[in-house]
Amino acid sequence: xKRLLPVILALLFCNAAYSQLPxxxxxxxxxxxNDTMDHSGNGYDLVNDNISAVPDRFGTPNSAFxxxxxxxxxxxxxFFPATAxxxxxxxxxxxxxxxxxxxxxxxxxxxxxxxxxxxGTIGTPGNRVSVxxxxxxQYLSTPVTLNAWHHLLVTRNGNAYTFYxxxxxxxxxxDFFVPITGFFQLGIDIVDGSDPFDGHIDxxxxxxxxxxxxxxxxxxxxxxxxxxxxxxxxxxxxxVFFDLKPTPTPPAGYSYLWSTGATTPSITVTQPATMPAAxxxxxxxxxxxxxxxxxxxDSIVVRxxxxxxRLGNDTSFCDGFxxxxxxxxxxxxxxxxxxxxxxTPSIVADTTGLYxxxxxxxxxxxxxxxxxxxxxxxxxxxxxxxxxxxxxPITLSSTGTFTSPTYLWSTGATSPTTVVSTSxxxxxxxxxxxxxxxxxxxxxxAYDTFTLHNPDTALCQGQQLPAxxxxxxxxxxxxxxxxxxxxxxxxxxxxxxxxxxxxRPGYYVVTAxxxxxxxxxxxxxxxQPIPKxxxxxxxxxxxxxxxxxxxxxxxxxxxxxxxxxxxxxxxxDSTAATVTYTAGDSQKYVLIVTTPHGCTGKxxxxxxxHKGSFVTYDVTRNVCxxxxxxxxxxxxxxxxxxxxxxxxxxxxxxxxxxxxxWIHPITSMDFSAIAVSKWGCRDTLNAxxxxxxxxxxxxxxxxxxxxxxxxQISPQTNLTDFHWFPGGGLNDTTLSNPLANPLxxxxxxxxxxxxxxxxxxxxIKIRVDAGTIIAVPNAFAxxxxxxxxxxxxxxxxxxxxxxxxxxWGNLLYKSNNINDGWDGTSESGxxxxxxxxxxEVEAVTDAGKVxxxxxxxxLLR
Length: 861
Prior knowledge:
The protein is built from 1 helix and 73 strands. The chain is mainly beta. A hairpin with a 2-residue loop joins strand 33 (424-432) and strand 34. The model is unreliable at 1-18 and 273-278 (pLDDT under 50).
């Protein structure tokens, strides 16, 4: 084991915030600016797996990487050959006590150099950081605070190594360097995935020279992030030229790259002078970089301001007319240029053609076009005057050739044609191409009339109805249908309509004709049948039940029947076609069915009500697990003796359909049964069984007693009454936990019961051993739970001596008191270091047997 130098020096550096990164002898530099690139320019880019970006110690987003403590890793595909002078540096943010690799260049546990975290012992979790040298030697362990950033740095000068934690020189050591054969790795042993780091790592550097204190302070204070800047909000401008620059102005030494390719701190942008910019022009962006650091980018969208000219939609009008075209206000100093050669804000258009205007106002330009069409008025002709017979409408339409016409009739219609049914003068106005023209026509309609005197009426089947029509002389009449009218009376003005069973409701239409003119009228004749209701016979119903009564009525084609139930007692609705009877008393019902005209029929039936409660059983029983009992219901009405039972749930019944079943319950449950009478009436029975908790007990099967020992029997149970057998060696046979001190091997049996009377039996075997056992632990940790090393015994024994030696044979502790132990100090009172020590012990049992033993014990710190 290599010895540490006796003096650990602490160096205090002036940590200048945001200092410059030392770059001479810099071999690799990873600031983790949301990437794993080597920013030294040497191309040592890292391969990563299962890492995610997090804020760095300055709070800059995505500028450090998180390692999940499971399988996160970063590595370079080979190692960095060690030079005589070198420096490794990194920042860490540990989350938990751990045994992990932070940074290592070489093969872990074989060769190389790097940082690890443990409790000062390789492989044991803790919050201490140290240098791991050659894979096997761990040096200069020191604790760090969890959930905080810390800077680790080690330098090599020949064979001398110095370790700094948070700018403090923890110390140095001297050792020969083993040539490196492995990988450069961060956060895990990439060979087998062991020792993963849990936390953040940032700003990793490798120099092929040892850094001086001032350069160490510079790398400790270097911030690779770029101070954020802005190009301003998106804007709209009219001038052709404008300047772009960042705010605030970055410090000297930063690099610039614009979207235009420029590398200057500011640029001048030129927009087109005669046309407005695109609706969504591409943004201008600027990326500013920091030497050996990160980059920051911002963008801005710049649009040209415009003036809007609207001449309106294309238009048309008749020859001889004109339209004023207005370009709109262009502002003070606006210049108007029309396609006609005019320079005024408006012009007058009176001929067909395309007109446009261009407006230039303060370097902002706009233009618009409009097409004007002029045309002659359209020809409109409704034809000569016309006439039509009584009641027949006339369709009027205009002739002519149109392009895009619109119509307006004197009737208010806007279609190409219109229909009129009264005599009069009618006109239409047609507009086409901005021109309108009108024509008119006289339409004559003859009015030959007659009168039908029969209103809509109703008859019962078999009745007769006289019909009557009066009208002008010479009219000829025709009735339809001719059903019930005897020929030739279907051509009479006063026929008689005779109904029979074949009649259905409908209209009778009479048509009066003269020449080619025909006029019709009608009345509705509702032929209503004689209803024949059928109740379907007497019914039986159970108490508490309901009965749906739905009689049939013929003929079925008629839908206007009126219903009257007498009496209406216990019925849901005494005027409904289908009623619901709610069980009350037995009752006879008469149903009278009529039509609106008074056609009537009737029928009757009787409803007999039977008892719904005819058997009684509603009890609660208490039992222990495994007991059985019988349910015995009581029949209240012998005349309603049930013909069937169904007990549910039926799992534990010997027969769930028996009238008096036996049940073997295993848990508390509620049971019910449905009893059915010969009339189909159902009664419900209820029973509850409460099964008391079973008697339970957990008792060890056996135990061993050594000389001088007794055993407190402590069963886990819900029993409240106990009896132990045999009683020899027990202090009380009625206790739940008696004290046993038998003279020989004994089996004790206990019988008990719960507070509800449920019983249980169990036993325990106690074996008596006349010997004594002496032992010493193989490790202990002073200051912990077992802060002293004692001689352990089972039985009776006296200690002759107990001694502790270090590996060189020096006596550190001795005692002849078996109740005393070594606290981990030497005879001078100083704490003994971590390591392996030798013990020697000699004791005599109460039987006179001498016990002697020696061995090793490890002292843990």
